[in-house]
Specification:
The chain is α/β, with parallel strands linked by helices and 319 residues long. The chain is globular and about 45 Å long. The strands form two sheets. It has a seven-stranded mixed beta sheet with strand order 6-5-4-3-2-1-14. It contains ten helices and 14 strands. 44% of the residues are buried. The longest helix has 13 residues. Strand 3, helix 3 and strand 4 form a beta-alpha-beta unit.
Length: 319
């Protein structure tokens, strides 16, 4: 009982942003035989506040940081098996790992495995904390697609992690399921994106009762051979790339360099879906300019009124 209360209080404090008081979404307890998913980060690679940004979206956050703004990551816990997994290892890796292990009731310093979508900074640089300068971890399984596998194996400083046994690279294949426990499996699938150093994948996560899609980075939906609406219909919970709300938000940049689907485009594509289908969708991977980072913004109101969700740090889902 004491441990349960302490865990609740920790998460209440850890996820409390500056500004109005709100309750954390991670519960003090969980099904001891179940599988759950935790939202451990929702922000795009560069974080919020964003380095070099003096606009209103970031200026105040340098003086008063919002602890709820962590770079994108999901956590998985199989309570019956005593296993924990991270999807993505970004710059907020130390805090996210601590939160995952605390929610799992684990005393282990590392997760049972880490899954990486691609080689952009917000998705893999947290691996550095497993090295000799930091944790000095022992053989943490890191699951990666072929190009990502080679990138980590052949390029320093990441190659040192493998050479010293801090990580144990595990190969992934497109549409090849990885059984992690009797209740949990993860399947990667390739998606179109800026693939300078590696391919890019999303993940399908299957728990004992629910299926999750996680696509934090992708180019416009029309560039993907899969019908995203059909993919949504086949899942119970969906986390989709919402880097930018609309084009006006990033009008100061060359839009050809950032071909992510705008949130307004995604909603237009899905607005004909039944409300129950739209309710599966949680927008994630929000750029520092994205008004959805502010729960009180007009953009957030529009999204919620249409029946969608905006991923928030600390949310947990039973799978």
């Amino acid at each position: 009982m004491v441990w349960g209360v302490a865990r609740f209080l920790f998460f209440w404090w850890a996820f409390l942003p500056s500004g109005p008081l709100h309750l954390a979404l991670i519960s003090p307890g969980a099904d001891p035989s179940g599988v759950e998913l935790l939202v451990l980060g929702t922000v795009q690679d560069g974080g919020s506040p964003h380095i070099g940004c003096s606009r209103s979206c970031c200026a105040g956050l340098f003086q008063s940081p919002d602890p709820a703004r962590k770079v994108v990551s999901l956590g998985l816990i199989d309570h019956a098996a005593g296993r924990t997994y991270l999807l993505e290892a970004g710059p907020d890796f130390p805090q996210q790992l601590q939160q995952l292990q605390l929610q799992a009731g684990s005393t282990l310093p590392t997760p049972s495995g880490i899954f990486l979508t691609h080689a952009h900074i917000g998705h893999y640089v947290g691996l550095m904390y497993l090295g000799r300068e930091a944790l000095g971890a022992d053989s943490v399984p890191v699951f990666a697609m072929p190009r990502m596998f080679r990138f980590l194996k052949e390029n320093g400083p990441w190659s040192q992690l493998s050479a010293l046994g801090n990580i144990a690279l595990k190969p992934l294949g497109d549409l090849e399921a990885v059984g992690l426990t009797p209740q949990l499996e993860v399947t990667p699938f390739t998606v179109p994106h800026r693939d300078e150093f590696s391919e890019t994948v999303g993940f399908e996560i299957r728990g004992p009762r629910k299926t999750v899609l996680f696509i934090p980075d992708i180019d416009k939906w029309g560039r993907w051979q899969t019908d995203i609406a059909e993919a949504v219909r086949g899942a119970d919970l969906v986390f989709l790339d919402a880097s930018f709300f609309d084009g006006a938000e990033v009008g100061y940049r060359d839009l050809s360099e950032i071909p992510h689907p705008f949130v307004v485009e995604t909603m237009a594509r899905f607005d004909s879906l039944p409300g129950a289908e739209r309710a599966k969708i949680h927008f994630i991977h929000l750029n520092h300019t994205n008004p959805l980072l502010d729960p009180a913004s007009e953009a957030s109101r529009r999204v919620l009124e249409k029946g969608y969700h905006i991923a928030r740090l600390g949310a947990r889902f039973d799978l």
